[in-house]
Design a protein that fits this description.
Number of domains: 1
Radius of gyration: 17 Å
Helix content: 40-55%
């Protein structure tokens, strides 16, 4: 677990961010320092910086806003990220930073299928199953699924191939089952772990492929 020493008290990282009476600027500084501590393990190049611009959020969904983004090759952690508990496990941090490292390698995405390919590479990486939590894995796969649904609505090629690749090659024992309809906006993707359905992802429009 990622913990913060505050005076004589040791707190989980999320408790520090949520409950500490320290100034917001100090908390922001700590977030950037922790991201930079783990960034080399993810292969991130350069120093991690920060942003307060919110990524896509869907209230009540099994996925939430993005913990980081990459712009012009610079990785920025999202200081307003909502799912703080995800940050308590270093494996989660390393894997979402791996996603940003892949963005550094591939450059800015131009389509939803391009961003889905970034997710796929992240999900097939060994870091996805190394000390990550089930909640994090399901949430990340759900975000991948919504990018696929957005690609499908936009008529982009390659959605079925990426689903097949994920089902065959991810190491987390997860697989995706789409339920096509005549209206692409009504298509859903169910996430399974073994025989157990872990959640159903419905199409939620993303404002741009980079989200």
């Amino acid at each position: 677990k990622v913990k913060i020493i505050e005076g004589k008290t040791v707190k989980l990282y999320s408790d520090f961010l949520i409950k500490s009476t320290k100034p917001t600027l100090w908390k922001d500084y700590v977030q950037v320092q922790i991201a930079n501590h783990y960034a080399p393990e993810a292969g991130v190049r350069g120093k991690v910086k920060s942003t307060t611009s919110m990524q896509h959020t869907l209230t009540g969904s099994i996925y939430s806003n993005s913990p980081a983004n990459t712009s012009n090759g610079v990785v920025n952690i999202n200081l307003t990220f909502k799912d703080r508990q995800i940050l308590d496990d270093k494996g989660n941090i390393i894997n979402f930073l791996k996603h940003e490292k892949i963005h550094q390698d591939k450059g800015d995405v131009k389509s939803f299928i391009d961003h889905s390919k970034v997710y796929l590479e992240q999900l097939k990486d060994n870091s996805f199953t190394s000390n990550t939590t089930s909640e994090y894995r399901i949430g990340t796969v759900a975000s991948f699924a919504n990018h696929l649904l957005n690609a499908n609505v936009e008529g982009e090629d390659g959605v079925d191939d990426l689903i097949a690749d994920f089902n065959k090659n991810n190491k987390a024992g997860l697989y995706l089952v789409p339920s096509p309809t005549n209206d692409p906006k009504l298509t859903t993707i169910t996430i399974y772990e073994g025989q157990k359905a872990m959640g159903i992802v419905s199409y939620d429009k993303l404002s741009s492929p980079s989200k």
